[in-house]
Design goal:
240 residues, six-stranded mixed beta sheet, tt1808, chain A, alpha+beta, three-stranded mixed beta sheet, 14 strands, 2 domains, globular, 5 helices, 25% helix, 27% strand
């Protein structure tokens, strides 16, 4: 027979995203992580707005994905450097998300990305119940899992097939198709936020780089400058 005490414990609600720690208290290990996350988020927004005209999607940047309840609670979370989940509200009860709680949301991320700051062994750790790779593959189930190593100018991409991660081969352009998003993921050598690095970036399926808002504005400015120059060469003074 179940005691009243045990019954009360069984009825205790699981905590939600406002009641769980936002961080395990560690510092960011790689100064480049935040610019890299911003670059990925900024450039893919137009794609996500097309996919979700209702705005129902969430992007996490160092946001904890809680997959089990532990003591302390943060031991039951993994925090990908970047992840995207479709068909979920961007806010919960009008509040900015502080974590993503699988036992309340149920929908797994479409893609999770880790930015390596060490030797990459942590991101490839398959130790049951502890290793990042194992937890993503066996519990959180992102459809795609990417391991980005800036020091090697490389990204390793896995797709979840039959419940196991299978490593993907690059296409003829050296990039990896992320089919649910209709984009490709790869390495772009260039300058972003005053740093010349091999950045992780998106392309469309035609091979066109997805631009940030600043890049799109600069492209439009150059287009206008060329048009003005052409008009002036024809003796026409453009209206300002």
């Amino acid at each position: 027979m179940t005691s009243a005490t045990n019954l009360d414990a069984d009825l205790t609600p699981f905590p939600d995203h406002t009641q769980l720690p936002e961080s395990d208290g560690t510092f960011v290990k790689n100064w480049q992580e935040h610019p890299q996350s911003i670059l990925l988020t900024d450039s893919i927004q137009p794609v996500l707005k097309q996919l979700h005209p209702d705005g129902q999607y969430c992007i996490g940047q160092d946001l904890g994905i809680y997959w089990r309840l532990t003591d302390p609670p943060e031991k039951g979370a993994e925090a990908p450097d970047w992840f995207y989940v479709g068909n979920v509200p961007p806010l919960l009860d009008g509040q900015t998300r502080r974590s993503y709680v699988l036992w309340r949301e149920f929908i797994s991320p479409s893609i999770a990305l880790e930015f390596v700051s060490g030797d990459g062994s942590e991101e490839r750790d398959r130790t049951p119940w502890k290793g990042k790779f194992w937890i993503y593959e066996q519990v959180i189930h992102p459809a795609f899992y990417g391991i980005y190593e800036v020091n090697k100018a490389s990204v390793e991409v896995y797709e979840l097939i039959g419940g196991r991660y299978q490593i993907l081969s690059a296409n003829e352009r050296g990039r990896y198709p992320i089919t649910p998003l209709g984009v490709e993921l790869g390495i772009w050598e260039g300058e972003y936020q005053n740093a010349q690095l091999p950045w992780l970036r998106w392309w469309d399926t035609e091979g066109n780089l997805l631009l940030t808002g600043e890049e799109r504005a600069e492209q439009e400015r150059q287009r206008n400058d060329r048009l003005i120059a052409q008009l002036r060469a024809l003796g026409v003074e453009p209206e300002v």
